[in-house]
């Protein structure tokens, strides 16, 4: 009996990699892709899909190395994001939360990671000289990279945040202010769907994306391993 107790305790303590650290790694890789590619492109940011075809072509033809680095780091960032979603979902279940929140978080995180990876791979194709010889193809690939890395990634990222924030609020496993902030971020992320209909709504994407990154880091470090029970 006593011999199995340490084994049982070790199994209960296992919670996978720390989600806060995973969120930091994901954020670092994503931001590194933006910063390094901008530096390599002499300060020119990734072109907007709403810009002119000539400007888009000039950027991709003149900054193949920057595009390739950005694509590689973006693809790499998708991996810790997927692991984060799986780890957080498992932790919510272990905390005794049986509401759909954990499943929503997992689904949103996996979809967000998949779309981010897809955007990175499409961007990598834009660094190939064979693709750059075809202006119409470049424009189409640029649109695809934007739509998968923009609304395609941010909207399900909002589901990941909401899937953690709702049970975090209802079960009091996260600070109340943090949980409410997460719900606001999730709402903005879902509203960014309007980008598909209204170009001006694209400003919602960076708001939801970068606030979401900060929120996932905070939630990852503050989400407890075990639920505190009080008698009384």
Short recap of the structure:
The chain is mostly helical and 232 residues long. The chain has ten helices and no strands.
- Per DSSP, the total helix count is 10
**Main sheet: strands, sense, barrel:** none
Given as residue ranges, the uncertain stretches (5+ residues, pLDDT < 50) are 1-13
Provide the β-strand percentage band: under 5%
- The level of helicity is over 70%
Q: What integer value in Å does the Rg equal?
A: 20 Å
Domain count: the total is: 1
Structural class: mainly alpha
Instruction: Say how many strands there are.
Output: 0
Shape: elongated
End-to-end Cα distance, whole Å, is: 31 Å
What's the overall average pLDDT, rounded? 90
Along the chain, the helix and strand elements come as HHHHHHHHHH
Question: Could you explain the architecture of this structure?
Answer:
With 232 residues, the protein is an all-alpha fold. It has one domain (16-222). It has ten helices and no strands. It has helices spanning 4-13, 19-40, 53-62, 64-94, 101-125, 129-132, 135-149, 151-170, 176-191, 204-222. Helix 2 runs antiparallel to helix 4 (64-94), helix 3 (53-62) packs across helix 7 and helix 5 runs antiparallel to helix 7 (135-149). It is elongated. The model is unreliable at 1-13 (pLDDT under 50).
